[in-house]
Write a structure and sequence with these properties.
With about 575 residues, the protein is an alpha/beta fold. The chain has 3 domains: about 5-20 and about 155-235, Glucose Oxidase, domain 1 (3-Layer(bba) Sandwich), CATH 3.50.30; about 35-145, PtsI, HPr-binding domain (Enzyme I, Chain A, domain 2), CATH 1.10.274; about 270-550, TIM Barrel (Alpha-Beta Barrel). It is about 50% helix and about 15% strand. It is built from 23 helices and 16 strands. Helix 2 packs across helix 5, helix 20 crosses helix 21 and helix 20 (about 515-520) crosses helix 22 (about 545-555). The longest helix is centred in the N-terminal third of the chain and has 30 residues, at about 40-70. The protein is globular, with a radius of gyration of 26 Å. The two termini are about 30 Å apart. It binds phosphoenolpyruvate and magnesium ion (MG). Magnesium ion binds near residues 395 and 435.
Length: about 575
């Protein structure tokens, strides 16, 4: 019982304490068990039985997942069914049994090994992921060689799930069962499917732990601290007590947050503001609203492309967008057209490797190159807009010519839909993201061309300060309080307001209580962020007076460094509004 602490990335806040359940991974066999020629027929029958059990299982799970958490998650099982029915895979297994006169376990393992090698030799991350789908299906067949009676009882107790990696299929299946207290995973990052799902189901999770699976065994005692990104294996009693009380504090805080969700979104001097949610999956809508979101300020539509090996069809887009529109109705949903390309490239998009992806064929640049794909997305968004609560948002605009081109395409799509007598919102608002410095500098001109603006501070800071947003070596330079950033953001907000146009911030700046207060002082009213941060931002904005903040930030932007600015704002705001950051540091 070794006590050990591991650091990872906390992707879903909260604390879970309990016993380990290791994800049951099938270890394919390296031992060839031979059979006699007269047994081959029987062995083939055994394999076919396992195949048919697997098929039935997949159909059952697909239905279950569709009912529990939505159709988009069940597509993985459709893909698995296709793999299961793959003729070459099946005949390869049968061939091995016949030719090598061996058990099915050996045949499946050989086929598994062969496919792993093929997939590993492919240079695309996306296809490497498909490799695990094949593993997933083959391991199910392998397990099904034993009949249900022979298998041990499934453990239904509440435990902490520990796994090397979780495929979207497993994540959806396991986390929706209601018996997972927390999650600890070797692989993964903030935006992995498991992370998103754990957040929306309120299950504490830490990913990127590298080797937690090698350090624990079933039944070990574990603490998962999803807030601080730590996992503690077999903690001594004192540590258990410490974390039990931390858990209680967090659970109380969570209840407090729920209460905040129901309070009005206005400052002490009654200035109304709107907390909105950035989401990537449609099933995050209800979670976001439960935390106080008053609309979906950013739907990152890329996820649709990341989930299927082929390109999504118009109907795939349409079913997601109309579900979003219905679930959020009457609140608004801002659907951002795909921000793909660059480093978020996929083989099916046929984009060549670029020397400088962040400055390359990304987002709207990619959409305008591949207009047919872009029109499919525009058409689906328009068709889903008949409830009149959808807005279209275009990422990474650099120049006005792009907006002109988009408007032409948009018009074409509208005409096509009219010819087909399809219903849609004629006045659907068209907005652009301000995240390229050139667009920011032109805001006063550019804003006249669109219905609204949304500032993507993550990219705007990256491009304005020339600091790669995901490069740890230069992250010390990524400063939202850099005087140049504050001046630029103020300039954008002023320009939009002067023109009477709506303006939102949907980058991380909106999620931080201090910078949200500064943005409020600049005149911003719409703050879009990861839903888990809504309560703390709402609480901070409710605790201040707009008038006071406005004066404080006016003086702050005349200071020279980000440190001076930050210190000045904190000091002044704390004097006036001591409650403003009370909950800031907890999530
Ligand atoms: C941004 O750049 O601030 C933004 C919200 O877009 P993304 O993080 O998806 O690039
Ligand atoms: Mg961006």
């Amino acid at each position: 019982m070794d006590y050990f602490r591991l650091r990872g990335i906390g992707v879903s806040p909260g604390i879970a304490i309990g016993e380990v359940r290791l994800s049951e991974e099938v270890i394919f066999t390296s031992r060839k068990e031979s059979i006699f020629p007269h047994q081959i027929k029987e062995e083939l029958r055994r394999l076919r039985k396992a195949l048919s059990r697997t098929g039935n299982q997949l159909i059952r799970i697909k239905k279950q997942i569709k009912e529990k958490i939505g159709d988009e998650h069940s597509f993985i099982f459709k893909a698995h069914l296709l793999i299961l029915e793959d003729k070459s895979l099946n005949s390869e297994m049968e061939r091995i049994i016949k030719e090598e006169e061996c058990r099915s376990e050996w045949a499946i393992s050989r086929v598994h090994e062969k496919y792993q090698k093929i997939f590993e030799s492919i240079n695309y991350e996306y296809f490497r992921q498909r490799k695990s789908d094949v593993s997933d299906v083959l391991s199910k067949i392998y397990r099904n060689l034993e009949s249900a009676k022979q298998k041990k009882m499934v453990d239904e107790q509440e435990k902490i799930l520990v796994a090397h990696d979780l495929l979207p299929s497993e994540a959806a299946l396991r986390l929706s069962k209601g018996n997972v207290l927390g999650v600890a995973i070797d692989m993964g990052g903030q935006t992995s499917h498991t992370a998103i799902l754990a957040r929306s189901l309120n299950i504490p999770a830490v990913v990127g732990l590298r080797n937690v699976t090698q350090r624990v065994k079933d039944g070990d005692y574990l603490i998962v601290d999803g807030t601080d990104g730590e996992v503690i294996i077999n903690p001594p009693l004192a540590t258990r007590r410490e974390f039990s009380s931390k858990k209680k504090k967090y659970d109380d805080y969570r209840k407090e947050l729920k209460k905040t969700a129901k309070l009005s979104s206005s400052t002490l001097d009654d200035v109304r503001f709107y907390p909105l949610a950035n989401i990537e999956l449609p099933e995050e809508v209800s979670f976001a609203f439960s935390l106080g979101a008053e609309g979906i300020g950013l739907f990152r539509s890329e996820f649709l492309y990341l989930q299927t090996p082929t390109l999504p069809k118009e109907e795939d887009h349409f079913s997601i967008y109309s579900r979003l529109a219905k679930e959020a109705y009457p609140s608004p949903v801002y659907i951002r057209t795909v921000d793909l390309g660059g480093e978020k490239s996929l083989p099916q998009l046929k984009i060549k490797k670029e020397p400088n992806p962040a400055l390359g064929l990304r987002a709207i640049r990619f959409s305008l190159r591949d207009k047919d794909l872009f029109k499919i997305q525009l058409r689906a968004i328009l068709r889903a807009s008949f409830l009149k609560n959808i807005r279209i948002l275009i990422p990474m605009i650099t120049e006005i010519e792009e907006i002109e081109e988009i408007k032409l395409l948009f018009q074409e799509v509208k005409e096509e839909l009219k010819l087909k007598r399809e219903k849609f919102d004629e006045n659907i608002p068209l907005g652009v993201m301000i995240e390229v410095p050139a667009a920011a500098a032109m805001t006063d001109v550019l804003v006249k061309e669109v219905d609204y603006l949304s500032i993507g501070t993550n990219d705007l800071i990256q491009y304005y300060l020339a600091v790669d947003r995901s490069n740890e070596l230069v992250s010390y330079l990524f400063k939202p309080f850099h005087p140049s950033i504050l001046r630029l953001v103020k300039f954008i907000i002023d320009a939009a307001r002067r023109e009477g146009k709506e303006i939102t911030v949907c980058g991380e700046m909106a999620a931080d209580p201090l910078s949200a207060i500064v943005l409020l002082g600049f005149g911003l009213r719409k703050f879009s962020m990861n839903p888990i941060f809504i309560p703390r931002v709402k609480k901070a904005l409710r605790s201040v007076e707009y008038k006071t903040v406005k004066n404080i930030v006016q003086k702050a932007i005349t200071l020279k460094t980000s440190q001076e600015i930050e210190e000045y704002i904190i000091e002044k705001i704390l004097v006036k509004h001591p409650k403003a950051f009370l909950m800031g540091q907890i999530t």
